[in-house]
Amino acid sequence: MEPILYARDLKKSYEEKGSGEKLEVLKGVNIDIAANEIVAIVGASGSGKSTLLHLLGGLDRADSGDVFFRGTNMSTLNTAALAGFRNKNMGFVFQFHHLLPEFSALENVMMPALIGNHFAEKRNERAEMLLGQFGLAKRGHHRPSELSGGEQQRVAVARALMNEPDLLLADEPTGNLDEHNTQTLLDQLFELRNALSITVVMVTHDRKIASRCDRVLRIEQGNIVAGEMNF
């Protein structure tokens, strides 16, 4: 099957503070993600999991190598074109929900559509529908400070799905949730994958979460390696 997302020979280094020395984080990563997969990226702390996710989503640029999504080489897009491409095709969820505190849950969910000028008069209706799917139909007019941690993260996932993305990228999305809320959020992600035919790539340090995914990719010493989940 033709991959929906793939990367070739991704390399990324950072300059260490103080010493000025280069730290190689990714050393030539190749990765293929099929449509509708839920894939976990695992590895030790500092192994480059989040760096890889950010490169796959166009939130950062590699030193060299290419990332392709639905046939488009994202590495060739300029900054403005890449931002528009992300907004239209991808949704992002992070460990910290990053909701805008001055806006309601409903307004936060609508934000990607407002930025990308999508859905026009149906923005409010679609945002309400998404909140309902996450059990938050009655919480739309509450601000983030009035929501629990689990509710805030579900709002963040609803926001990530606002523009009907084909790809959802999640960086430790359950890292700040208790076990109950973690399982609830994961159940909803799997249900949405089946209902909406979206692809999910998720960074996690949790073995239980990784074991529920269709496939697990492990980063070790800057490369994707085969083997057990020894992280």
UniProtKB/TrEMBL annotation:
Domain ABC transporter: from-to ranges: 5-229
PROSITE patterns, alphabetized: ABC_TRANSPORTER_1, ABC_TRANSPORTER_2
One Pfam family here: ABC_tran
A single GO molecular function term of this UniProt record: ATP hydrolysis activity
GO biological process: lipoprotein localization to outer membrane; protein localization to outer membrane
Cell membrane listed as a keyword: yes
Similarity section: Belongs to the ABC transporter superfamily.
Protein name: Lipoprotein-releasing system ATP-binding protein
Source organism of this protein record: Cyclonatronum proteinivorum
